[in-house]
């Protein structure tokens, strides 16, 4: 399915009632799984190794041990097919997050083994098991890592990934586009911006700690645009996509963000307001800050703080029938309350 076309409402398989989920123990999955269950879906959690009590807190949920997906994908056999029997849909959230690896070729091999190959193996197994629908969590970085003023990314933007992580996700997307017609699988690809929510990871967690301790933050002179996506909004879209799949054999891709696109200092101010703290923003020439972070081996942090990464949500709002339930400020407030 072309992302330029409207998403058919209920034109594909019927809304999923039994949903298989990978990555339920991860940052997104820990929030998403109970929400989907509360909406009346029965979940089958596909775990590397099942442990007692994993599904105890979610009524009607069962856990299936499938082993390491990067290994299972090499020789799928019957393991994945059996795990997916009786499911209406598969939500694939598991994968290797972006981590610094010095050798780019080695990194790409590793990320493809954890992100690309398992995604395609799961798609094949799902179709063999009679699953009609798949949702794949990609990343908005498949479009690139920065935007120019007035040129935001959107669901319509071409794939132009840089870095091993984004390349592995883009490879998985392209593989799904090839497989979906052959398998008759309805595929929805979600490409979230940087996700914020309870128990955040990486830079947002570090920013929260700095604001809480009253540390000076040299971001006051930065003039950029950064898109984020609340965990509640991402989960809401996944639920919406489960109820509104594309036609069988088609792919719909959605690049997602909150409606608001603040600058870095404005994001820190919103974060401070959510925490009931006034952040200590101090001026520093962005070029000097970038140089200092790069010399300290934190070039990726410099990029995420100083450069723009803006997502235009208009195609999603116009075609999907979905709107984000929470504003950025409300999402940050809930994140801060969860951490208290």
From TrEMBL:
It comes from the Bacteria. It holds the Pfam family Epimerase. InterPro entries: Epimerase_deHydtase, Lipid_A_modif_metabolic_enz, NAD(P)-bd_dom_sf. Residues 20-245 form the NAD-dependent epimerase/dehydratase domain. This is NAD-dependent epimerase/dehydratase family protein. It comes from Camelimonas fluminis.
């Amino acid at each position: 399915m072309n992302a330029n076309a409207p998403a058919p409402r209920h034109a594909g398989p019927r809304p999923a009632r039994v949903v298989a989920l990978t990555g339920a123990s991860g940052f997104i999955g820990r929030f998403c799984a109970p929400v989907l269950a509360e909406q009346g879906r029965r979940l089958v959690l596909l775990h590397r190794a099942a442990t007692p009590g994993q599904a105890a807190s979610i009524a009607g949920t069962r856990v299936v041990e499938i082993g390491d997906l990067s290994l299972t994908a090499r020789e799928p056999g019957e393991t994945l097919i059996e795990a997916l029997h009786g499911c209406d849909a598969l939500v694939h959230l598991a994968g290797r997050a972006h981590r610094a690896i010095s050798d780019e070729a080695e990194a790409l091999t590793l990320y493809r083994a954890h992100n690309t190959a398992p995604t395609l193996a799961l798609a094949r197994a799902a179709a063999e098991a009679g699953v009609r629908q798949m949702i794949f969590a990609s990343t908005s970085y498949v479009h690139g890592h920065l935007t120019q003023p007035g040129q935001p990314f959107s669901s319509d933007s071409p794939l132009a990934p840089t870095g091993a992580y984004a390349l592995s996700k883009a490879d998985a997307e392209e593989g799904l586009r090839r497989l979906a017609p052959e398998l008759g699988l309805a595929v929805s690809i979600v490409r979230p911006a940087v996700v914020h929510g309870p128990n955040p990871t990486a830079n947002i967690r570090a920013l929260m700690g700095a604001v809480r301790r009253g540390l000076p933050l040299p971001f006051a002179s930065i003039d950029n645009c950064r898109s984020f996506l609340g965990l509640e909004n991402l989960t809401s879209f996944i639920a919406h996509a489960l109820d509104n799949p594309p036609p069988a054999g088609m792919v719909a891709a959605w690049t997602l963000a909150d409606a608001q696109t603040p600058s870095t200092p404005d994001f820190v101010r919103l974060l401070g307001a959510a925490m009931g703290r006034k952040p200590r923003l101090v001026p520093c020439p962005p070029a000097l800050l970038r140089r200092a972070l790069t010399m300290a081996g934190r070039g990726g942090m410099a990029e995420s703080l100083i450069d723009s990464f803006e997502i235009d949500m208009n195609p999603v709002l116009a075609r999907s029938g979905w709107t984000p339930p929470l504003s950025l400020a409300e999402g940050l407030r809930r994140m801060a309350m969860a951490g208290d």
